[in-house]
Amino acid sequence: MTTLIESEEHKSLREAVAAFAKTHPHTLNAEDNTRLWQEAAKLGYIGVNLPEAHGGGGAGITELALVLEELGAAGNPLLMMIVSPAICGTVIARFGTEEQKRDWLPSLADGTRLMAFGITEPDAGSNSHRITTTARRDAATGDWILTGRKVFVSGVDIADATLIVGRTEDARTGKLKPCLFIVPRDAPGFERRPIDMELNAVERQFELTLDDVRLPADALVGDEDAGLLQLFAGLNPERVMTAAFGIGMGRYALSRALDYARERTVWKTPIGAHQAIAHPLAQAHIELELARLMMQKAAHLYDAGDDIGAGEAANMAKYAAGEACVKAVDQAVHTLGGNGLTREYGLGRLVTASRVARIAPVSREMILNYVSHQTLGLPKSY
Questions:
Q1: pTM
Q2: Assuming Cys at both sites, which of 81, 169, 179, 217 could form a disulfide with 142, CB separation 3.0 to 4.6 Å?
């Protein structure tokens, strides 16, 4: 029942975040974005999912997704919420050493530091099993040495460190297994290059090169043998948060379209009275609401400790939200006609941005593969 009906506490949180978000202009530049982040952090919104013992709100991904959705619905989504508190903060809180928790969690919660997340590689794409960034131990010092490349890493320029997914060699089998490392932004051999994106977003995308980056032994997060368990402890919240990002964006676009449809009059009648306008907007609203229900289910499962159930639901939520977001943005632009592509209404930039919810962090086709194999039990083609 908790996934169907929000508690009074959640309703109050939603109202508070919505009221806060509406007081800010659209974050179209880095300065406004930073100010919004810092003010949201002071109110406890950025670290709401992190442990109270380390300065967070003691809640979960359910509450963090709610915050991001409402920020997005006001036209002020914070992309780094998906990365810094949801992925990196969660992984460190669950698997980090006590020293890593003391060092990172309070500053991630209060917004004074950010952490980026690097997993995607040029030749691996969605296939995390083909990651070639490797980590080897220096037998003499115990240090780790990382070598490899990453692409489409958000916010590296504003992050104090990046949580890098590498692979270490299993001494028993010789096979590579995934491991996570905290790489400081100023580590020698750690270089970044901005990717020229046709995406109107404050947060920039980067390609990373790790050229024999030397890290101390305590840069490893968690157990060297935990492998995929630790990785998906971050990836499931990422999918839930991406769903929240898409739902918020879709709600914002829909609200602009509804305002216009109520006010724009043709032949003495508001265009919203015509079913050719009204019905597609109603459908967009329904699909956003359905996506939210699956997102809430995924978040509740994750917060309850059901990683397997959360994995299935998080993928479905991300798929549903991506599709609903694109449809809502597209219909909003059509509702406004030519005005939908003007800067005044702020919808044109969402045409490109909404596609992010479809293709990142995993494409809709790979989600369909996941559901086909894992849920429906169909054979693989690869």
A1: 0.95
A2: 217
